[in-house]
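User: Here's a chain of 492 residues. Predict its fold as tokens.
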Amino acid sequence: MRRILSAVLLSFSVLASAQTLYKVFPAGPPGSVDVNPADMNNSDVYGGYAAIGGIGKLFVGKYNGTYTFLDPPNGASRGGLNGIGDAGWAAGFCQVNSRARGCVWESNGTPHLWPLVQGYDASTASHTNSSSNACGLIYNNGSYGVAARWSLANGVALLPILPGESFSDCRKILDDGTVVGTCGHGSGSNIAWRGVKWLPSNLMLELLPLSGSPGVDIWDANQAGDVVGASTPQYYATIWRNEQPSKLPMPNGASQTLAMSIDDNGNAVGAYIISSNQGACYWPVSGGVVDLDTRIDPSTPGWHLTAATAISNSGMMLGYGSFFGGNSTAVILVPVDSALVGVTDIQVNLGYVRQGDYHSLSAIDGDTLQVARFFVPNLPSRIQYSVSGTTTFGDLSALTLETYGKMGQPGAFTETLELFNFDSGNYDPTDVRSVSFGAANQQVDLTGTGDVSRYRRTDGLLRARLTVVQSGPSTNSGWWAAHDKIDWKVRP
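Assistant: Prediction complete.
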């Protein structure tokens, strides 16, 4: 039932500018594949579908943080996710008796199934607002339907349809209860959709297309009431401010554009098509258009971004990309000048250090915290582990940090072990080691050992830092490295 531009794959407080760089990372919980992201809210919580261990799951969570899996209510099976509000409530659908039923999940994962509406056998929830109210679509299986509002207290209420139209759909509900979407009539490719805002009173304001375009496709709105999407059927990205349409700039050579999300600062993101090739772009509120491929930080090269589907007020983006011409995958774009960056530094407190014993930091899926995997042809990359621990033993002589690294192509590792000097307040290098190898998919054990005696504080506290720099071939090919385990050892 959702209308999607055929070329689109599936479906800034820190103000992003034309000069902002973005680190690109695969999206989804650890161990997930086939990630289909749905939405991101202004707390940078995003969600969607992912397959984990061969089982499909709906999830919400933060990049490099914790994730909550959204289970269907009793008697229903998994469906899909469409939107996430700023209160953390998620909107989507479950399957009941082979029919989609709208479902809203609280931020803790508690589901609320929409009731059936007389005369209709299916529904889906599109989005929730900060008051945990939702909008969605009520329909009969295989046909168009009617847009609706939902609340936990009052259930489902159908929204009116523009005069002369037969059905409607909606995308977003704002905090004041305003809903944005479309109304239309006809069938197949003969439908010319009309844009509409349903105010809290159900008064309807029409969103007209650009001059010369018969229809619109509405995708998102911000709390100021700005709406983005496209004028159709040629697809020209359009923004409506005070219900008046304006064409957003097109990248050089582009034949089609679609604005898919807008933040509360007025920055929009979306996709463009040039000669059947698709790319991701954003439109800063200051004007112009930027191809996001030109703003990828050099530390995460090799990506071609094909769509930016959501943007938060912090400037983080959600979308799709391919790595060195591979298959499309869901990605997170993190602005480099954001405090969210720093994912290559892992802080670990391993507690008490026992004489002759060791502590091990391992990952649940074999790749430490997922953040240790790099795609770094032509550019050395760094990952740093900081560990601390306390011991009461007085005869410890050495501390060792070991990593087990694996590289997908021939390359080299160089590691530096540093111990914290409490007198100077700085880390002192105590061991530097390098290893190179010519075989692909080879695993190596890197060991750094440092003298403990002069680096223990009087209360027994030790701090150490291990920095691993990885370099690979200069050819333009996929290359990666992973660290499977970090061991922290002391010995007498």
